[in-house]
Amino acid sequence: MAFTFTVNGRDHLVDPPGETRLLDMLRGLGYTGVKEGCSSGECGACTVLLDGEPVCSCLIFAHQARAREVTTIEGVAGDERLHPIQQAFIDVGAVQCGFCTPGVILSSLALLRCNPDPSEKDVREALSGNLCRCTGYVKIVEAVLEAAKRLKKGGGR
Length: 157
Ligand code: FES
Ligand code: FES
Fold this sequence. Notes:
By secondary structure, the protein is an alpha+beta fold. The protein has two domains: 3-75, Roll (Ubiquitin-like (UB roll)), CATH 3.10.20; 84-152, DNA polymerase, domain 1, CATH 1.10.150. The protein is 33% helix and 13% strand. Strands 2-1-5-3-4 form a five-stranded mixed sheet, covered by helices on one side. β3 and β4 (53-56) form a beta hairpin. One FE2/S2 (inorganic) cluster (FES) binds at residues 36-39, 41-46, 56, 58.
């Protein structure tokens, strides 16, 4: 049955087959920043925010997004510049192959919205569902802590 939902502030009318995953619907709509890794809820590459909460879009049916708001990595930056979290990832050198990065940044965004002053432990916990094969996490954690500092100084959203 057709329904509407919102992605990054834009309404979409969709009518996906019953067992379509949110991951596939989003990618089919062009939100290819949503990555598919394990397809089983283990890697976090497919993370999006559903009404502000990080979820694995490979584990959610498309129809579960009915009348809800999804945020993908495409909706994180402003028109003119990157979000402070994205900028911190670049400045600190927390991106290698980049496959995990959209999911990591969305989990980080959800963390910093509810905990603007996280400890290293808080960051590691918040990102525990996002696997990265490249970085060893040190730079990722550093980038999130740096982003928190910048956001506190008034550098973001
Ligand atoms: S692809 Fe969804 S958690 Fe790995
Ligand atoms: S940067 Fe390659 S998987 Fe994280």
